[in-house]
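Annex B. Sample input.
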Amino acid sequence: MKKLLTALLFSTAITAQATPIFNIFELGIQAGQEALYDDVGTHNITTSLKNEAGTLAMYSAKRSDMPQMAYMFEMYADESAYQTHIQSEQYRYFLSRSPDILTQHKRKISVEPYFLADKTIEQTKDTINRFVILDIKSEYHQAFAQSLVKVMKSAIDNEDGVLAVYALKDKTDSHRWYLYEIYANEQAYQALRQTAYFQKYLTQTAQMIEHRQVVAIAPSLLMNKGNVRFIAE
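Annex B, continued. Sample output.
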């Protein structure tokens, strides 16, 4: 059964059975079009968060070592909210400009939310985000999920500088997890790593992880409504 840990704070009603929609897109930007991509993306993000009750978060980031590779992380209250967004004027404008901005590299990573928790984000020059891809050994799926949820819940509840923690499972590969996290600054992330519960998580899960990839990304524009709490059971 799917359940919300706390009420999602937006005007569109959501039932206890509703599962938020979370999308991850990997997009190539044509050479010299980075500024235009940011302009069009900013319009889409700011208008959507302002006008669409069911659009819960939109985060734009780029590869730190490859600024022409962009990532979009999006969260919607449910399928209806997502359909409302893709019919919006600002999203259609983004699509209309895409041929002039994007390369042929357009990849959607299909994921299923497992744990979602955030606070209202006010981005500053110090705000950082992290994107980690994990492959978990088959025999440890349940144990890993339990450890991950425990550490993420402790982090969002106890650390002021932890702004968002999202755990997502790949829909086509049962071994693969995606972790997307936002911190007020680098110091907040390092402080979390020194906590007893985070060190315990590292120890518990060390043998469970078959492969880890940290995708170095820098935030462009991070916006959300905040106060989402969701866990899949």
